[in-house]
């Protein structure tokens, strides 16, 4: 006899689930005549299932006589209604292990998720006294070994979802870091080319001799921009020191002559005393101070951002977190609730507890993005790294003209310091450069606004700004988008299927977790603390350098490298 189970005899979650199904479907009962009766709801009645053969109907070819005893037949309509009732009750009974005779679905999902053999897995629900997390009064489809493997899978699930959630942000930063570095490399090559062509076009006699100094200078610029431990003051001074003997031999005291190595070295060391190039070397230091230093720090900060995301993508979860994840994600499987989803509040408590230390990154991450904005703003106008590099050759030309205008004064000063040169008649090698390349090289093509480094940087910052609160809202994002049941739907609360989660939902961050009913959060995470310290450092350096470069811009001082 089919009988409705009384609400009092049903577990809370099963009762809520059953009521929902019965409300949508129908009510089964016995009629006063003992006949099975089914009262379909209007929704279910609209779906007409084909009627199977009537019970007791004679098979084809049965030619029983009139005197033969006939089995009473159930009319077709009654059979159809009863069949629907049986289907409905079967559905209701299959919602948990106490009404399920097989663990086949759980076995299949276990094999699919963990890729292991199903041998040794329960074929039917049974007692599970050795389980440590997925405890239940009802028979279970899980073993202790399954529980251990589920716990590993639960950690992997969270790690995978974290990596998926951060993939857009990581791609944004890594692509722009690579593009920024590639653009800087291109600008350095262009700037070196413009400077070399300046010598070939205007100072042809000294072009080949100046090539080595020019190449060394721009190599040092690149090394500095990309983080090498080089001193910018030294390579700026070294360039102008090496340039002065060439200017002296070809502009100040010209002739088909060459001085000895000792005399050239004397001229080189005298450069900073006689100042043949006026204030041009200091102007170079000032402009590069306000462009190279922020550019170097900006690139280093981008690489740190990638490191932060890589670290949080592979964060280690505590034992308490792992057990809570297991309970939320896979303990329902042990009760054959393979399609259940956790309640929203329950999910938030578990994930906020697991990601509590990571959430505390958020204010530092926000400040980090703000420091990138300020660094980007510091590289603008005449102090934009693109502008400074591509106009370096113009400052070199100004320096040469300055020396040429003061030729007699410089000649007297050098003769006084180094004496008269010992002349040896030689022919200076000349620059051999394709004139078509000269004209092309010396013409700096106007660049489209969309193509400039400043505009690309601005576009990147605008996109990055959307991720300022990434770590603060990560737990909520994972529950809303990935794991939790929709509002108003029956859901898993860690023990049963319920209509809603009854526990208090805690906030984000470590401090808020003292009242978390699902995950115990204690101590600090040394890995998270380490990346917080790195973020603090780059923020502090960025802020200090922005102030420093602003002061450099006002004074054209050469002290900008000291805080690099």
From TrEMBL:
Gene Ontology biological process terms, A to Z: regulation of signal transduction
A Pfam match: Glypican
Keyword ATP-binding: no
GO cellular component: plasma membrane; side of membrane
Membrane protein topology class: Lipid-anchor; GPI-anchor
Role noted for this protein: Cell surface proteoglycan.
Similarity annotation: Belongs to the glypican family.
Protein name: Glypican 5 (Predicted)
């Amino acid at each position: 006899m089919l009988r409705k189970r009384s609400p009092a005899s049903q577990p809370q979650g099963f009762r809520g689930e059953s009521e929902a199904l019965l409300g949508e479907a129908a009510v089964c009962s016995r009629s006063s005549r003992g006949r099975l009766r089914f009262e379909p709801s209007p929704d279910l009645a609209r779906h007409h299932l084909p009627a199977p053969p009537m019970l007791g109907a004679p098979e084809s070819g049965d030619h029983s006589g009139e005197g033969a005893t006939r089995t009473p037949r159930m009319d077709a309509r009654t059979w159809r209604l009863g069949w629907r009732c049986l289907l409905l009750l079967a559905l209701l009974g299959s919602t948990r292990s106490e009404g399920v005779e097989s663990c086949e679905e759980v076995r299949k999902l276990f094999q699919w998720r963990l890729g292991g053999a199903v041998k040794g897995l329960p074929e039917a629900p049974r007692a599970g006294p050795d389980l440590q997390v997925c405890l239940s009064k009802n028979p279970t489809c899980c073993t202790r070994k399954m529980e251990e493997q589920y716990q590993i899978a639960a950690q992997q699930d969270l790690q995978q979802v974290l990596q998926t959630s951060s993939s857009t942000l990581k791609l944004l930063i890594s692509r722009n870091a690579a593009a920024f570095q590639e653009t800087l490399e291109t600008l350095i090559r262009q700037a070196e080319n413009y400077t070399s062509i300046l010598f070939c076009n205007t100072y042809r006699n000294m072009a080949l001799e100046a090539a080595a100094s020019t190449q060394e200078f721009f190599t040092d610029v690149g090394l500095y921009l990309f983080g090498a431990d080089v001193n910018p003051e030294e390579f700026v001074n070294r360039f102008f020191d090496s340039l002065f003997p060439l200017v002296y031999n070809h502009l100040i005291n010209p002739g088909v002559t060459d001085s000895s190595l000792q005399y050239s070295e004397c001229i080189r060391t005298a450069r900073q005393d006689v100042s043949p190039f006026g204030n041009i070397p200091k102007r170079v230091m000032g402009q590069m101070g306000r462009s190279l230093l922020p550019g170097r720090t900006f690139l280093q900060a981008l690489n740190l951002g990638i490191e932060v995301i890589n670290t949080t993508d592979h964060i280690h979860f505590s034992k308490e977190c792992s057990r809570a994840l297991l309970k939320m994600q896979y303990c329902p499987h042990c009760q054959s609730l393979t399609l259940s989803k956790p309640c929203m509040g329950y999910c938030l408590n578990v994930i906020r507890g697991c990601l509590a230390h990571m959430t505390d990154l958020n204010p530092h991450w926000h400040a980090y993005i703000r420091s990138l904005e300020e660094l980007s703003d510091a590289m603008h106008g005449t102090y934009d790294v693109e502008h400074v590099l591509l106009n370096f050759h113009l400052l070199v030309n100004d320096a040469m003209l300055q020396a040429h205008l003061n030729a007699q004064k410089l000649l007297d000063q050098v003769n006084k310091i180094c004496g008269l040169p010992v002349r040896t008649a030689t022919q200076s090698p000349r620059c051999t450069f394709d004139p078509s390349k000269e004209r092309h090289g010396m013409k700096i093509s106007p660049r489209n606004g969309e193509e400039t480094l400043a505009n690309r940087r601005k576009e990147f910052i605008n996109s990055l700004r959307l991720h300022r609160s990434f770590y603060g809202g990560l737990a909520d994002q994972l529950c809303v988008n990935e794991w939790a049941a929709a509002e108003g739907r029956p859901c898993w609360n860690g023990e049963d299927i319920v209509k809603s989660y009854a526990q208090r939902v805690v906030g984000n961050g470590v401090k808020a977790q003292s009242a978390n009913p699902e995950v115990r959060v204690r101590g600090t995470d040394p890995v998270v603390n380490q990346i917080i310290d790195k973020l603090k450092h780059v923020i502090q350096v960025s802020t200090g350098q922005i102030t420093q470069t602003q002061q450099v811009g006002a004074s054209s001082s050469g002290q900008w490298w000291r805080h690099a």
